[in-house]
Amino acid sequence: MLRFDVFMETRDRHLRFQALREKHLFPFRGEISVQSAGQLPVYCDLIQNLWKQETALDRFRGQHTFQELWYHIVKHAHFSATDSGMALERARAHMEEHYSENVTIEQLARIAEVSPKYFVDLFKKTYGISAMDYLAELRISRAKQMMVQSHAKLRDI
Predict the structure, then answer these.
(1) pLDDT of 25 over the 60 cut
(2) Burial group, residue 110, by CB count within 10 angstroms (0-12, 13-18, 19+)
(3) Would the N or C end of the chain have less CB density within 10 A of its end CB?
(4) Domains in the chain, ordered, with CATH?
């Protein structure tokens, strides 16, 4: 089991790092199965040994090795449809990419690999808003952005 925090660089008066605690800011949460363990135990042992070292350079190498480990995990990951959080994130990402198209519950349910009824219930329970209301809010938000940032006519937007 791996536990780690992800930090995002923030710039105000000083360079700071803020932990990403919100689910939508980091794409992976929960259990990820990997089809081939391969080098994973070697990476884990090396990270553990480097983390215990006194020198900052060795600890830095441990961080680098962790990134290699993470790359290996993501590259060889098998995402299961049973992970409802990941399934919903895939559907929500599809909505954000294709908001200007005709998006249906059936399409989103296929992307999430669940039944349409279950998708509707799960989306509402998870995000507190229906999928179609979320899509409408997304479209309105993008239209507002376009009105502010472009010189396009309102009817074109």
Answers:
(1) no
(2) middle
(3) N
(4) 7-78 (no CATH), 84-149 (1.10.10.60)
